[in-house]
Amino acid sequence: MTAVLELGGTHVTAALVEAARVVRRVRRGVDARGSAEHVLGAVVRCATDLDAAPGEVWGVALPGPFDYDKGVARYEGVGKFDDLYGIDVGSVLLDGVWPRPGGVAFLNDAHAFALGEWHAGAARGHRRCVGVTLGTGVGSAFLADGAVCRDGPGVPPLGRVDLTRAEGRPLEGTVSRRAVIARYGDRAADVRDIAARARAGEGRAARVLYESLRPLGAVLAPYVRDFGATALIVGGGMAASWDLVGPALRDGLGDTPVALRAAALGGDAALVGAALYARPR
To answer: What is the Cα–Cα distance from 124 to 127, expressed in whole angstroms?
Structure first.
């Protein structure tokens, strides 16, 4: 079994993964705007509660900006985990988690998601695929035979779709939880509420979702085509409304020859991907 951690904006999950299946998990709430002591304390307690075997190499999936090779947080002015800036998170985990880990392998959470889906989910059997997560922001990963590509034909700058533009503005100004809520005009409604209203026949809600998501498909189309991806897998909180998300993305993709699918592993995809990444290669 492989021990893993996934840190998100509202929670941290520790899990044991065996044969691409989560066999045990522990979850704790986290305030992404909280102090470093709060955030890292929650992470260490969550990992310790898992009671993994000593000497395990842990896979840890978390969002950027982060120095994944050195294990140092680089969050600054991004509205989450800012108090962690400059902290050697790897050392905190190695010194604080009990039983003591034997090492820590960090990776981007969108990369972990795509790896999990490629290994055991909706992208299984596809040599080249693109994974996209839709939530607070837009995460992405371009995989070739399970390896993350950060440059080359069909790969956006640094492998990050969020650095591109849609309809003359930064992509996340159109496609993100914040952007959808702002476009809808009711800050008391979350994306799932807007989706429910769209299903109930509210034209404005359906139009807002379509007009927010179709541009993402249009932005992705040339990258997916040039990269030679045969599968485009979408996960994250917004993908829960796949009956509305899928058709809008498909319209934006046009005749791009790619299998568009919702994530098959749900919230376990990043955990499975982190476990795969942490294994000896």
So the answer is: 8
At 216 the pLDDT is 97
Report helix, strand or coil for 149.
coil
CA 199 – CA 193 distance, rounded (Å): 10
Closest CA to 272 of 116, 121, 47: 116
Residue 134 and residue 237: Cα distance in Å, rounded?
A: 6
List of domains in the chain: 2-108+269-276 (3.30.420.40), 122-263 (3.30.420.40)
Could you identify the residue written with the tokens 């939880």? Answer: 177
What gap in Å lies between CA 180 and CA 129, rounded to an integer? 26
Tell me the pLDDT tens digit for each residue of 123-142: 999 999 999 999 888 999 99
Helix axes 191-199, 203-227, angle to 10 degrees: 110
Amino acid code (one letter) for 279? R
Q: Containing H/E element for 253?
A: helix 242-253
What is the C-alpha to C-alpha distance for residues 58 and 171, in angstroms, rounded to an integer? 33
- Can you list the residues of the chain whose pLDDT is less than 70? 281
Q: What is the pTM of this model?
A: 0.94
**Calpha distance 145→157 (Å, rounded):** 20
